[in-house]
Every structure is written in structure tokens, then in C-alpha cells.
Amino acid sequence: MTEDNEFVVDDDPPRDIIGDPFDLPPLPPGDLVAEELELPTTPYATGKFAFHRGEYEEAIKQFTAVVKDAAYDEDSRVKASYYRIEAKAEHNLTEELIGEFEEISANFPDHHLAAAAQRRADALRHHFAQIAGEQ
């Protein structure tokens, strides 16, 4: 309410605040540079930035560095694992990714990305079954 006891109408549609941050469209290559924006330079942040720019090989490289670095906490390594597989899917969609998504779901069942990983595995299984003419 405003000071005049009038209601303010919010015409903006509701936004999904739980959705996957990787649903955003990628940034066009060459538009922005991390140094110009003074972005964090950790491998995880660099991987996310590369993913959004459509630079999937770089994203895979950066997320792999996080997964292999024991200095990162488990949550960061699980997220990096998940997004590394998403980057691999964008770069080269193969049936092997099903098992990688299932590994996250099986090894980290209480993590918030476990259900998402299982859904992606199921969706990929369905996708490849359709391609093979099995469904």
C-alpha cells in the first residue's frame, strides 16, 4: 500500500526463483571480458562465465579443476560436477552422460542437484531411445 492507502499493482509476471541458472541464454562471444567486468577468477566462476558465453570446452576445463581440487567443499564440487556434465551435453551429447548424471544422483542423494541429475539422466535415456526408435 502507498501512503495514500492505495494499492500498488505489480504488473510484472511472477519469476521462477528456483529454476536452473543455466537456463539463461548464452552471452555472445567477444562481447564482454571477465577482466573488464572484474569478475571473480576462481575456476568455478570462470566455468560458469564460459558456459554462459557458449564456451563449453573452457567451462568443462574449469569445472573439472574444481571437481579435482580437494580445497573446494563438497557442495561446490557437486555443483561443478553437475554443470560440467551440462557443458559436456551442450558440447557433445552422448549416451555416456546418462551414467555421469546418475553418479551424482547416487553418490549425493541429499544434495539439491541429485533430483535434477536424475531427471536429466531419465530425459537423456528417453531422448536416445527415441533416436534409436525404441519408443
Features:
mainly alpha
Descriptive account of the structure:
With 135 residues, the chain is mainly α. Helix content is 56%, strand content 0%. The longest helix is centred in the middle third of the chain and has 18 residues, at 74-91. It is globular and about 50 Å long. The model is unreliable at 14-18 (pLDDT under 50).
Can you lay out the helices and strands and say which pair or pack?
Layout: H1 34-37, H2 43-52, H3 56-68, H4 74-91, H5 96-107, H6 114-131
Brief summary of the model shown:
This protein has helices at residues 34-37, 43-52, 56-68, 74-91, 96-107, 114-131. The protein is mainly alpha-helical and 135 residues long.
Q: Distance between termini?
A: 54 Å
User: Given the structure, what is the number of helices?
Assistant: 6
Q: Oligomeric state of the chains?
A: single chain
Our estimate of the beta-strand percent is under 5%
The residue ranges in which pLDDT falls below 50 over 5 or more consecutive positions are: 14-18
Q: Major sheet, described briefly?
A: none
Order of SSEs: HHHHHH
User: What structural class is derived from the secondary structure elements?
Assistant: mainly alpha
Q: Based on DSSP secondary structure assignment, what is the total number of beta strands?
A: 0
What's the Cα radius of gyration? 19 Å
Shape: globular
Helical content stands at 55-70%
Quote the average pLDDT: 81
